Every structure is written in C-alpha cells, then in structure tokens.
C-alpha cells in the first residue's frame, strides 16, 4: 500500500475549511440556544480565544 502525505498547502486548506465549519456551527448552535445576536457571540468568542474580531471571523 502506498502512503500519501498531504502537502503543506493541502494541510493549510483543510485546516481553514475545518475552522470555518467550526465557526459556522458554533454560531448556529449559539443562535439556536440563546437570544444573543451574531456580534455578541463573536465578541464572546474573541474574549475566550484572546484574538481580535477580524481574526475570529477570518
């Protein structure tokens, strides 16, 4: 069996896609279970992650 090793570019693309899915999923989850608006949820994520809003949205 041949072993496949993804390139750095492929790994970065997969990481970006997974983080985007996680971000979207968390927003959906919080909107469904709280009365918070998107901006409030992002602020909460920013505080918890120690990042800027732009970094979190990116």
Secondary structure elements and their pairing?
Elements: H1 8-33, H2 38-49, H3 53-57
Would you mind describing this structure in some detail?
The chain is elongated and about 50 Å long. It has helices at 8-33, 38-49, 53-57. The termini are far apart. The protein has 58 residues and is mainly α. It has three helices and no strands.
Percent range for helical residues?
over 70%
What structural class do helix, strand and pairing data support?
A: mainly alpha
Q: Given the structure, what is the number of helices?
A: 3
What gross morphology would you assign? Answer: elongated
| Overall pLDDT metric | 90
Number of strands: 0
Gyration radius, in Å:
15 Å
Q: Describe the biggest sheet?
A: none
Tell me the distance between the termini: 38 Å
SSE string = HHH
Unreliable stretches (pLDDT < 50, length at least 5) are none
For this structure, the quaternary state is: single chain
Q: Strand content of the residues, in percent? A: under 5%
Question: Any descriptors?
Answer:
58 residues, mainly alpha
């Amino acid at each position: 069996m041949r072993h496949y090793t993804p390139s750095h570019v492929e790994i970065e693309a997969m990481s970006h896609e997974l983080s985007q899915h996680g971000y979207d999923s968390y927003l959906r989850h919080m909107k469904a279970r709280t009365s918070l608006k998107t901006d409030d949820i992002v602020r909460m994520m920013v505080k918890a992650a120690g990042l800027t809003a732009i970094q979190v949205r990116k």
